[in-house]
Structure formats: structure tokens, C-alpha cells
Write a structure and sequence with these properties.
Blueprint: H1 16-39, H2 46-92, H3 106-112, H4 120-130, H5 134-140
Helix pairs in contact: 1-2, 2-3, 3-5
Length: about 150
């Protein structure tokens, strides 16, 4: 776990196993199998081409599976973040902001999750009035609330 406090500059999460091992290995595998397939086109032995073609299809399928599995986890996490933030907004905000929670865009919720409870009402008002982007929201946060559990 990082001992440095999280902020806008360092909040992006990298999963070393996924980003620096699995993903590169899968990309290199697809490229290598594709090169092998193209270099060994043999119309005299169609079963060799079928075999090599099948290896290419399987390598592409594995790469797509890696991406889909990652995206499924992120989608579930995004749903949880939306729920958590709506519950938090409901408990922190006073009227009339509380009744406008439904107007906050999903991407704005993702940015607001890093704001402390103290600065949340002012940021929500700005989100609604100025249509701030997720990045603008994150840049506007003074007291960063770390999210150390992001996948």
C-alpha cells in the first residue's frame, strides 16, 4: 500500500500483473501467432493453414477474454461507486441539492467520490450549474478522499 496521500496527480491505479504482464503477453502472442500464420501459408497443405488459422483465432479470443473480464470487473465496480456516491450524497447534502441528485451525471459521480464530505455540497452545486467534467471535478478537489480499492 502506498504511504503517499492520494491526489489528482497520483490517483490513477495500475495493476502491474494486468497492465505490465498479462496484457503485453497476450498482445505479443496475438502478433506472434499472426506472423506465424502469414509466414506459413501453405495452400498445398490446407490442414496446416486451418491449424495455424485456428491458433490465431484462439489467441485473439484469449486477448478479447482478458479485456472483457477486466471490463466486467470495472462495470460492476462502477455500479457500486454510483450506488455508494448516491447514498453518500443523500446523507451529506441538504435541500434543495438533495432533490437534484438524479441530475448528476454518472461520470460526475465518479469524480465526486474523491471529494471530502465538507467540500461535497459546493462541488455538487458547481457540477449541476457548470456541468463540470470528471477531470474538472477532480482538479477542483482540495481535500482528497482516497479510493484505494479501485480495481
Amino acid at each position: 500500500m502506498d504511504t503517499k496521500p492520494q491526489n489528482f496527480a497520483n490517483h490513477v491505479r495500475w495493476d502491474p500483473v494486468f497492465h505490465f504482464f498479462i496484457l503485453p503477453v497476450m498482445l505479443i502472442t496475438v502478433i506472434a501467432v499472426g506472423v506465424h500464420f502469414l509466414r506459413h501459408l501453405d495452400f498445398q497443405h490446407p490442414w496446416h493453414m486451418v491449424h495455424n488459422g485456428w491458433l490465431l483465432i484462439a489467441a485473439i479470443a484469449l486477448l478479447l477474454a482478458v479485456f472483457k473480464i477486466r471490463l466486467y470487473a470495472l462495470k460492476v465496480q462502477d455500479r457500486v461507486i454510483r450506488l455508494e456516491e448516491r447514498l453518500r450524497l443523500n446523507s451529506v447534502l441538504q435541500e434543495p441539492l438533495r432533490s437534484r441528485i438524479g441530475e448528476i451525471a454518472e461520470t460526475q459521480l465518479f469524480g465526486l467520490r474523491f471529494a471530502s464530505d465538507a467540500e461535497l455540497p459546493a462541488l455538487v452545486k458547481r457540477c449541476l450549474d457548470e456541468k463540470l467534467s470528471r477531470t474538472d471535478i477532480k482538479k477542483a478537489i482540495v481535500n482528497w478522499r482516497a479510493d484505494d480499492h479501485r480495481i
